Amino acid sequence: MAPAQDDYPSRPITLVVGYSAGGSTDSVARPFAEVFGRVLKTRVIVENFSGAGGALGALKVVTAKPDGYTLLMGGNSELIATKLINPKQPYDGQKDLAPIGVVNHQGGMLLASRQSGVKTTDQFIQLLRKNPDKYNYGSSGTGSMFHFAGELVRERTGTRITHVAYRGVPALGNDLAGGAVEFGYMGTGPAKPLIDAGVVVPIAVTSGTRAPIYPNVPALAEHPELKGYELTGWFALMAPKAVPEPVIAKLKAALKETLKDARLRQTFNDLGGLPMVEDEDLPALMRAEDARYRKFVATAQLETQK
Fold first, then answer.
1. Which of 62, 76, 142, 174 is the 20 to 30 Å CA partner of 185?
2. Which residues face 109 on adjacent strands?
3. Which residues pair with 108 in a beta bridge?
4. What integer is the mean pLDDT of 115-120?
5. Domains defined along the chain, listed by start
6. Is residue 264 within 8 Å of residue 184, measured between CB atoms?
7. What is the pLDDT of residues 125-160, one digit of tens each?
8. Alpha carbon separation from 182 to 201, 203, 295 (Å, rounded)
9. What contacts 120, CB < 8 A, 6 or more positions away?
10. Cα–Cα dist 61/15, whole Å
């Protein structure tokens, strides 16, 4: 029997993250879960279920019992982009999940290994131009936002570089630090400890302007060949499609209250979060992103999986 609004939640809630611990989504989900649970007066347990650019975690929630006790912290990768690369993906983020609301927006970064010798966007482009197909860049998975970020740079600059899909940011960070992969794209939050430790080189941010936490790191859009370039990520709370409306209403109210928490907002800022939009229309955002990513696929001539 579906829970009534009055007695929901009566036990802990699982918040699924489709990536390994330490990545962009995870770094947003964990502090969020703590405050969200406090608002709902229950425990909210983050469960990492990584693979396929976040799609495996999303599918876990799509097929979960629609009782409000299994939720997804999803993003533009698994909710929008991955299905454009993999037409056989067994769910549609816009049709098969119930939107609760937007949690945060965050930019990304292009990083280089210290061994590459690259310190600027221009050096990056010129190195690839002189050595087509010699170098690799990593992302958090095929169809992820950071896969798109790399392919758009490749297309705009006419360079050739090989994409390497990782199951999560920690593995990519380790390979970048050790020089096993020369370049990588990841969120500003997960990149910070690597940059602070001096084990990677920050080249540029993927947002249209510089990130407040990295004022000395240029935007990719500042390079003449990448003028107008902008790609940022967002995180949203989603539920299985058939969750009863009274439960959805309670989750929406709890989300709104959670996002008022000053400490949480500061945490998001420290992770490189972009300015929050009050009461942002999530379905409208998803429709706009779907149209935008379809253009990305066509422009960058990304290959779809057979």
1. 62
2. 186, 205
3. 187
4. 97
5. 5-105+233-300 (3.40.190.150), 108-226 (3.40.190.10)
6. no
7. 999 999 999 999 999 888 888 999 999 999 999 999
8. 10, 12, 28
9. 203
10. 9
| Separation between Cα atoms, residue 175 and residue 223, nearest integer Å | 27
> Given this model, what pLDDT does residue 300 score?
65
Length of the chain: 306
DSSP notation for 244-263: -HHHHHHHHHHHHHHTT-HH
Distance (Å, rounded) from C-alpha 71 to C-alpha 16? Answer: 6
Q: How far apart are CA 151 and CA 237, in angstroms?
A: 27
DSSP string, the chain: -PPPGGG--SS-EEEEESS-TTSHHHHHHHHHHHHHHHHHTS-EEEEE---GGGHHHHHHHHTS-SSSSEEEEEEHIIIIIHHHH-TT-S--TTTSEEEEEEEEEE-EEEEEEGGG---SHHHHHHHHHHSTTT-EEEESSTTSHHHHHHHHHHHHHT---EEEE-SSHHHHHHHHHHTSSSEEEEEHHHHHHHHHTTSEEEEEESSSS--TT-TTSPBGGGSGGGTT----EEEEEEEETT--HHHHHHHHHHHHHHTT-HHHHHHHHHTTBPPP-TT--HHHHHHHHHHHHHHHHHHHTPPPP-
Distances (CA, A) of 197 to 117, 166, 201, 272, 279: 17, 22, 10, 17, 37
Please name the residue that has the structure tokens 């482009």. Answer: 125
Residue 172 · residue 186 · CB < 8 Å: yes
What is residue 116's predicted lDDT score, i.e. its pLDDT?
A: 97
Read off the tokens for 114. 């210290």
With a CB cutoff of 8 Å and minimum separation 6, the contacts of 209 are 219, 221
Mean pLDDT value of segment 188-214: 94
Mean pLDDT of the region 7-35: 95
